Amino acid sequence: MRVGTDLDNPSVHGFRMTAFDTPSDVPADRLRQRCRLLASLNHKNASQQKVNAATALCRFQERAAENVTGSEARRAFDLEQEPAVLRERYGRHPLGQNLHMARRLIEAGVRMVSVTAWAGTPPGEQFSNVQTWDMHGNGAGLGSIFGKGAYGLGWALPHVDKAVSALLEDLGARGLLDSTLVVLVGEFGRTPRISNAGRDHWPSCYSALLAGGGIQGGIVYGASDKIGAYVKDRPVSPEDFGATLFHALGVPCGTRLGADGFTRPASMGQPILELFGS
After folding, report:
1. CB 150 within 8 A of CB 127
2. Pick from 29, 33, 51: which is nearest to 42 by CA?
3. Residues 36, 63: Cα–Cα separation, whole Å
4. Mean pLDDT of 76-104
5. 12 to 82, 120, 130: CA distances (angstroms)
6. Rounded to whole angstroms, how far apart are CA atoms 104 and 184?
């Protein structure tokens, strides 16, 4: 479920999460009546086996209906419940407020939250692309990767530093960091020499940040060569990176993804155990 859009995000004054809004002709009472009717149809004239299957499905249907008709889920998305000083600590930009909302969702029991690392549009600049982390060479038409425009590191990196550090501090203060794995990573890096010709995608070497979930703080694993072109020391494959995430979540890499036992395992890699405390 996507929360907000490019220009309608939690950093905008008066933002309201609308994904739980029902159609105008289906108010909450009418929706509840539909749910009761559906439950009765699921159980009427059904065999016991079908009743058991329907009951399992109904639990999810009921939880979905509670999200739409109740107030608890809506409160988790309401940043107005947060102290202004904490909102400022995260930063009043899309990344900061998205991460702040992510903490509220984790605290409310959401199992996984994905946040797009877009730092917003600098003052005086018009929004012109998409809500994403998207730095390129000048040839891509988004301005200099080293500049202070919306897609320049001079603008984006200070916002990332502020917002991510606020998230880690906030999770730690609430006793949630040990049970929450924070992952900051993309799918590729940029060429070691930035050109003006094009997109400069570079999958040979890039970085990731892990915190919480049993990860030791303050360590660096692996290294690139002196220009960041290739891995020089202790390379981590995507498979091993995925296995490390599963390990932090308590999922053995050999876990089969399907009940039949014949599907592929959760990961074909090996976790990097050096990242975890004793």
Report:
1. yes
2. 51
3. 13
4. 95
5. 15, 10, 16
6. 18
Encode pLDDT of 107-139 as tens digits: 999 999 999 889 999 999 988 777 788 888 777
The SS3 of residue 185 is strand
Rg (CA), the chain: 23
Whole-prediction pTM? 0.86
Q: For residue 137, what is the DSSP state?
A: -
**Residue whose structure tokens are 């009765």:** 40
Q: Pick from 73, 115, 112: which is nearest to 93 by CA?
A: 115
Pairing of strands 208-212, 181-185: antiparallel
- With cut-offs at 50, 70 and 90, classify the pLDDT of residue 262: confident
Written as one letter, the residue type at 134 is D
Cβ 245 vs Cβ 270: under 8 Å: no
Q: Tell me the two tokens of residue 152.
A: 């320049």
Structure tokens at 118: 């877009």
Q: Which helix (H) or strand (E) holds 157?
A: helix 153-173
> Of 86, 85, 81, which is closest to residue 99 (Cα–Cα)?
86
Query: Residue 27 has which token pair?
Result: 């108010």
- 3-state SS of 79-121 is HHHCCHHHHHHHCCCHHHHHHHHHHHHHHHCCCCCCCCCCCCC
Which pLDDT score is estimated for 50? 61
65 in Cβ contact with 32 (< 8 Å): yes
